[in-house]
């Protein structure tokens, strides 16, 4: 099929080129005028990335002469998988980086001398680097890769634009680079899961709006009349994260030449908005987005339809309407009025129903295919992730109750809870999705080695179990020691004594983290070998979007 050429720069190419040229000049001006060294460094990076992007846009134009990429070839959708490949590779890179930093700070907690008395290797700077790397860099790139793949396949339509998909993927990773280097250099708002300073937040907002337009544009162009349920979850994730991000990061910069800013919220209102954001970052970034992955990749891998499509729709609407109210349970026993935190706990308890409904739907999708768990470690990993999702969404509402929270809050129990969800649910469903995506994207028959997937599964599972059980025991012991009184009514233990008691569990936690990192390295090697030496697919596979609901 002959490719149509216009010979002219398209409106999209020209628009993005002009925007990026203006951005490069703005960054250079700020870098030249600021006395803030971190701002100068970040603006220099921004100018460089913008200039390189303009060069790539025009290089692409001169290479293809303004070629118009057809939406279909021989009657079949001409999918755009280039940005999906990049996001998948970036996810694996950032994942290993984030997991490794997590291991380093776990070792620092066990042996504080490993802070090395250097500002950029201090726990206080590495901890937000770890959380942002694993949540936003690893998890975010997994969501970008899978959402761009799934929406094209299930809509049987190519993503709109030549530059737009690449702008979203590369722009998001530029945000990760700016935010991560900012933490190491001490530039942070000091807000949990919202540490990047105002200019990074502003850039992410621009990228995120384009991401929403890209996703909606693909749905608008769909050839499939039905919008598959996974796309509803992705859409809820994109829209809600935008609202959360903008509201929680409403700041007034001290100066456009300074990294510093002042939040518009004050006092308890700031705390309320922060944990409305913080809990819903978990609810919509780490839950809704990854449930979309569950609803696409588990049926595909199991070669079975979703157990109940009706239940998946109920799951969707119940989850998004209830989850958004649960945040105040983070603020029991604080200046927040008790009715507000109790309301948050109430909605957390109600969340048991949609959460477990989704878990049951995911597990029961394997009806008639349970035997595949013996032979397919990728499917086993995804099914275990759904089991972790069920356990975490049982434990979370339990911990939101005031009586339980009075023991668990500020202790390592919370750390164990978070990591059972992060490593077991988010980690395993992400690994499963990447194990599926890489052979599909690079047209390989299968993974290089299922045996290596088996090793990855068992090594990392042992690591997760060691991690969360150590933190459960450590956290409950910590809470009990804090509230212990002697016969005279004085505290029975000093704070230092509680820290000393936790030391063995911190070593076990670090060991569990090390096993998880080893598992990720095994995975990276397996995916690399799949791309380089995997057996090529002989014929074009059936469309991966042909998922029929089953009732």
Automatic annotation (TrEMBL):
It comes from Roseibium denhamense. The chain crosses the membrane at residues 14-32, 38-58, 86-111, 131-151, 163-186, 198-220, 232-256, 276-297, 309-326, 346-366, 378-402, 422-443, 455-485, 505-528. The keyword Phosphoprotein does not apply. Its EC number is 7.1.1.9. The keyword Membrane applies. The lineage of its organism: Bacteria, Pseudomonadati, Pseudomonadota, Alphaproteobacteria, Hyphomicrobiales. This is cytochrome-c oxidase. Belongs to the heme-copper respiratory oxidase family. Residues 1-551 form the Cytochrome oxidase subunit I profile domain. It is a multi-pass membrane protein. Keywords: Cell membrane, Copper, Electron transport, Heme, Iron, Membrane, Metal-binding, Respiratory chain, Translocase, Transmembrane, Transmembrane helix, Transport. Gene3D superfamilies: Cytochrome c oxidase-like, subunit I domain. It is found in: Cell membrane. Pathway: Energy metabolism; oxidative phosphorylation. Its cofactor is heme b; Cu(2+). It catalyses: 4 Fe(II)-[cytochrome c] + O2 + 8 H(+)(in) = 4 Fe(III)-[cytochrome c] + 2 H2O + 4 H(+)(out). It is an enzyme of class 7 (translocase). InterPro entries: Cyt_c_oxase-like_su1_dom, Cyt_c_oxase-like_su1_sf, Cyt_C_Oxase_1, Cyt_c_Oxase_su1_BS, Cyt_c_oxidase_cbb3_su1. It comes from the Bacteria. Its main location: membrane.
């Amino acid at each position: 099929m002959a490719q149509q050429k216009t010979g002219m720069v398209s409106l999209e190419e020209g628009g993005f080129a002009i925007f990026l040229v203006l951005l490069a000049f703005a960054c250079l001006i700020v870098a030249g005028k600021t006395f803030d060294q971190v701002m100068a460094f970040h603006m220099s990076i921004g100018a460089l990335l913008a200039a390189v992007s303009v060069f790539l846009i025009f290089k692409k134009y001169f290479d293809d002469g303004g070629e118009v990429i057809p939406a279909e070839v021989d009657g079949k959708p001409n999918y755009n998988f280039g940005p999906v490949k990049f996001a998948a590779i970036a996810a694996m890179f950032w994942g290993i980086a984030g997991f490794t930093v997590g291991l380093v700070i776990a070792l620092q907690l066990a042996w504080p001398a490993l802070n090395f008395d250097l500002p950029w290797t201090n726990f206080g700077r590495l901890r937000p680097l770890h959380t942002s790397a694993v949540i936003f860099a690893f998890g975010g790139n997994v969501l970008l890769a899978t959402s761009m793949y799934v929406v094209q396949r299930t809509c049987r339509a190519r993503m709109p634009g030549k530059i737009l998909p690449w702008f979203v993927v590369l722009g998001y990773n530029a945000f990760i680079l700016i935010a991560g280097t900012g933490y190491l250099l001490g530039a942070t708002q000091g807000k949990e899961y919202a540490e990047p300073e105002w200019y990074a937040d502003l850039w992410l907002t621009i990228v995120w709006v384009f991401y929403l337009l890209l996703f909606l544009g693909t749905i608008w162009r769909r050839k499939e009349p039905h919008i598959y349920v996974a796309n509803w979850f992705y859409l809820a994730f994109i829209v809600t994260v935008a609202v959360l991000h903008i509201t929680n990061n409403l700041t007034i910069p001290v100066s456009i030449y300074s990294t510093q800013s002042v939040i518009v919220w004050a006092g308890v209102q700031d705390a309320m908005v922060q944990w409305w954001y913080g809990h819903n970052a978990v609810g919509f970034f780490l839950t809704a987005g990854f449930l979309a992955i569950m609803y696409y990749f588990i049926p595909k891998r199991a070669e079975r339809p979703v157990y109940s499509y009706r239940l998946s729709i109920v799951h969707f609407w119940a989850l998004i309407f209830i989850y958004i109210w649960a945040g105040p349970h983070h603020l029991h026993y604080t200046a927040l009025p008790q009715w507000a935190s109790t309301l948050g706990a109430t909605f957390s308890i109600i969340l048991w129903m949609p959460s477990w409904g989704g878990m049951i739907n995911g597990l029961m999708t394997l009806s008639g295919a349970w035997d595949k768990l013996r032979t397919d470690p990728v499917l086993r990993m995804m099914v275990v992730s759904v089991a972790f999702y069920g356990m975490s969404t049982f434990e979370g509402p339990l911990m939101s109750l005031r009586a339980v929270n009075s023991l668990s809050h500020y202790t390592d129990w919370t750390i164990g809870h978070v990591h059972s969800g992060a490593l077991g649910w988010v980690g395993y469903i992400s690994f499963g999705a990447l194990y599926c995506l890489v052979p599909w994207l690079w047209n390989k028959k299968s993974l290089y080695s299922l045996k290596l997937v088996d090793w990855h599964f068992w090594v990392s599972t042992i690591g997760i179990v060691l991690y969360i059980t150590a933190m459960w025991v450590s956290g409950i012991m910590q809470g009990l020691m804090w509230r212990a009184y002697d016969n005279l009514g004085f505290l029975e233990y000093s704070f230092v004594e509680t820290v000393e008691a936790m030391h063995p569990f911190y070593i076990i936690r670090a060991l569990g983290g090390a096993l998880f990192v080893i598992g990720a390295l095994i995975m990276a090697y397996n995916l690399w070998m799949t791309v380089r030496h995997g057996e090529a697919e002989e014929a074009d596979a059936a469309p991966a979007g042909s998922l029929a609901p089953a009732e």
